[in-house]
Amino acid sequence: MSKDTTGVEATGQGGIPPAVVTLVSIVALFGLWVLAATLTADRTILPQPWALVAPFWREVVSGELPYHLGATLLRVIWAFSLAMLAGGALGLVMGRFPAVNRWLDPWLVIFLNLPALVLIVLCYLWIGLNETAAILAVVFNKIPNVATVIREGARALDPQIDAMARVYRMSAWARLRHVVLPQLAPFVTAAARSGIAVIWKIVLVVEFLGRSSGVGFQIHLYFQLFDVTMVLVYAFSFIFVMLLVEWLVLQPWERHVRRWRVE
Question: For the domain bounded by 49-262, which CATH number is listed?
Answer without folding.
Answer: 1.10.3720.10
